[in-house]
Specification:
Two copies of one chain form a homodimer. The first copy, chain A, has a domain at 59-191. The first copy, chain A, is mainly alpha-helical. The mean pLDDT of chain A is 90. In chain A, helix 1 packs across helix 2 (37-44), helix 4 crosses helix 6 (99-113) and helix 7 (118-140) packs across helix 8 (149-166). The first copy, chain A, is elongated. Helices cover 76% and strands 0% of the residues of chain A. Chain A has helices spanning 7-30, 37-44, 48-54, 58-78, 85-94, 99-113, 118-140, 149-166, 173-191. The interface between A and B is large, with 49 and 49 residues.
Chain lengths: 192, 192
């Protein structure tokens, strides 16, 4: 039997969700330095006290937000329909150019300077990296028992991350599409 | 005849150079939020007044630092000896994993949130991107008149950037070497 929730629990869950989405939005727009709990609470239309009830510290809130980002991205990946490799490559790269990637990037960079954030973000990134790799192997129909296939898929995901970074300051979409088209061909040949 | 400089000019140039190197070091360690002109001046062993004589505003100092980073990276690239493609790929990727890349990354992310920094960093990044591509084509002996070759080299540089990002929080060296070895093979086949 599924869990039965009260209206109060539903409201609490909705508030939590709104805070996480606001944390991601604030990170993407204002960066770590500009994203205090107060800024996020105001964006979410929630009192500072209510925000602190859900997330006692700033680190709790933003670690929760990274986790949320990670789950959203994995869900988006798993929801991709089975299709040709060129479409899969394009969809994988698309994951790294939206607001979720921008927020994750802000957190990675902040974590590189903030000791309190670093271990949590590092652990989460490793977990997300493994999960993304697993889903990509599956979508691409890649046979990892063949030598070099594992590294080929990893390199593709590194390229996708680099393309996301190139898109940070300007809209790099036209160039990106040409690069993705070409590398989808090379990848298809490499995966056999 | 080369320019003749006075001892005073030499000292001024040395101070400027020290400020730029300190700005890069501070960015890599403290990020944009923690890198004020005072912090950089103290790191360089220079008075705040002397720092402001060279760089009137914080934006001037850090734009100068980005330019300095860019010139250092181009010089390092051009200084690579002519060698096999696998070595060139490894050397290109190495450029994206050191303190120069970490500093540039901090600036890109700060520029995405700081309107005063953004146009300068965007312009500089476009210039550096073109220059890096030109040097990479040359080192790889790639024939850009052939269809797809331009995009193949661009994708390689995007992968290098993504590998640099993956190295931000943890030492990703062992995995990176395996990915680079495999992608050097794919690249070599693609370039013919």
């Amino acid at each position: 039997m599924g869990a039965v929730t009260s209206p109060k629990q539903d409201r609490s869950r909705a508030t939590r969700q709104r805070l996480l989405e606001s944390a991601v939005a604030c990170l993407a727009v204002h960066g770590w330095a500009g994203s205090t709990v107060s800024v996020v609470a105001e964006h979410a239309g929630v009192s500072r006290g209510a925000a602190q009830h859900h997330f006692p510290t700033r680190e709790d809130l933003f670690t929760g937000a990274v986790e949320y980002v990670a789950e959203e991205r994995s869900a988006a990946l798993r929801a991709l329909p089975v299709q040709g490799r060129a479409e899969v490559v394009a969809a994988l790269v698309d994951l790294y150019t939206g607001p979720l990637f921008r927020a994750a990037l802000q957190l990675w960079v902040a974590a590189s300077n903030e000791e309190q954030l670093r271990p949590r973000v590092t652990e989460l990134e490793a977990r997300v990296g493994r999960e993304t790799h697993r889903i990509a192997v599956n979508l691409l129909g890649a046979d990892e028992t063949r030598p070099g296939v594992r590294e080929t898929v990893q390199g593709l995901l590194d390229m996708a991350r680099g393309l996301g970074l190139a898109n940070l300051l300007t809209d790099d979409g036209a160039r990106r599409r040409r690069v993705v088209t070409q590398w989808a061909v090379l990848l298809d040949e490499a995966l056999g």
